[in-house]
Amino acid sequence: MERTRRLRTSKMIRSMVRENHVRIEELIYPIFVMEGENICHPVKSMPGINQYSIDRLEEELNRVVAAKIKAILLFGIPEHKDEVGSGAYDNEGIVQRAIRFIKGNEKYKELVVIADVCLCEYTSHGHCGLIRDGVILNDETLPLLAATAVSYAAAGADIIAPSDMMDMRVAAIRKALDENGFVYIPIMAYSAKFASAFYGPFRDAAHSAPGFGDRKTYQMDFANGREAMREVEQDLLEGADLIIAKPAMSYMDIIKDISKQFNIPVVAYNVSGEYSMVKAAAKEGWIDEKKIVMELMIGFKRAGAKMIITYHALEVAAWLREDYDE
Ligand code: PBG
To answer: Cα–Cα distance between 292 and 269 in angstroms, integer?
Structure first.
């Protein structure tokens, strides 16, 4: 007789038949770098996450290296914003300087530095593209995204991650990277990126909330799963090497569909609002943070994610060294 409980009788047997795991190598930790000096400024809506000026970045990078995390995702907060987001593609911009700092330091040389490419942190209006008459322009934005990508690669970025959701940006970035000798720099495309309220805390952290309207004319309607597959298909045709699905918790079906339909590593982005909800409930003592977070991480893996971008990465790395299955 079939008795599925037979394989659950002891912790050892359970661990032998366990189908999914998270490895430290699969975690990507986002870091916010800010213009200025001596800054380690807590992001109020994201407990445990800070904005760092470059001169204080080492504190955070040392934690990353100690945790044996291999990859970080950089977001920049510039001092000056303008209509055309020029801080993004300025060779002396905040992210460019942060990358050079990291890559110039023996201790961090091995870290995989992923640079988020978008204009929203750098534009005075907070949108991810150029604007004319209230319309977010697509094709006119592409050269700026491409210039940003090339500038990050020239600074030493290992992977370029466009998060703007303009059409044809992957092709524009791939072409520009190739023409500038960065043929082997991969593109991790935010392909299935939905217009989501779960990005709220991030916009506090990155000072990137749109000044008017919302992002619904470029980010996807969260009701659409099939459309996400078209986005992925298009980005793969344009040369994407890795595909991000974002957010993650309410989008497990998207992660699963991408991993089933395309032979490409899928990256789940466990976004700011998801992080903050867990932190708030844990602070109240309503949930067991470690158990909840590990269940989420394994859930992303079970759905088909290869890698996970998460603000919990430092904690998860520590928990992985312990026995999380108590
Ligand atoms: C920039 C960008 C955003 C996030 C990653 N890159 C914000 C947005 O699209 O408004 C969100 C990340 C998070 O919520 O953790 N376009």
So the answer is: 17
pLDDT digits (tens, 9 = 90+) for 151-208: 999 999 999 999 999 999 999 999 999 999 999 999 999 999 999 999 999 999 999 9
Displacement of CA 196 from its chain's centroid (Å) = 14
Beta strands in the chain (DSSP E): 27-34, 40-42, 50-53, 71-77, 112-117, 131-132, 135-136, 159-162, 188-193, 242-246, 266-270, 307-310
User: For residue 203, how far is its CA from the centre of ligand 1 (angstroms)?
Assistant: 7
Q: pTM for this one?
A: 0.97
Cis bond before residue 201 (omega within 30° of 0)? no
Helix axes 226-238, 169-179, angle to 10 degrees: 20
Angle, alpha carbons 243-157-178 (nearest 5°): 75
Q: Report whether pLDDT(25) > 90.
A: yes
Query: What residues contact residue 264 under an 8 Å CB cut-off, 6+ apart?
Result: 232, 236, 240, 241, 242, 243, 258
Cβ-proximal residues to 297 (8 Å cutoff; 6+ apart), any chain: 22, 270, 308, 310, 312, 316
Q: With beta carbons less than 8 A apart as the criterion, state whether 278 and 227 touch.
A: no
Instruction: Please tell me the distance from the alpha carbon of residue 159 to that of residue 112, in angstroms, as a whole number.
Output: 8
User: Which one-letter DSSP state was computed for residue 34?
Assistant: E
* Burial class of residue 274 (count of CB atoms within 10 Å of its CB; 0-12, 13-18, 19+): buried
Residue 24: count of CB within 10 angstroms of its CB: 15
Q: How far is the CA of 160 from the centre of ligand 1 (A)?
A: 15
The residues carrying an active-site annotation are 193, 246
Q: Is the CB of 276 under 6 A from ligand 1?
A: no
Cβ atoms of 150 and 178 within 8 Å: the answer is: no
In the numeric block, which tokens belong to residue 6? 């037979």
DSSP for 85-135, written as a single string:
-TTTS-TTSHHHHHHHHHHTSGGGTTSEEEEEE-STTTBTT--SS-EETTE
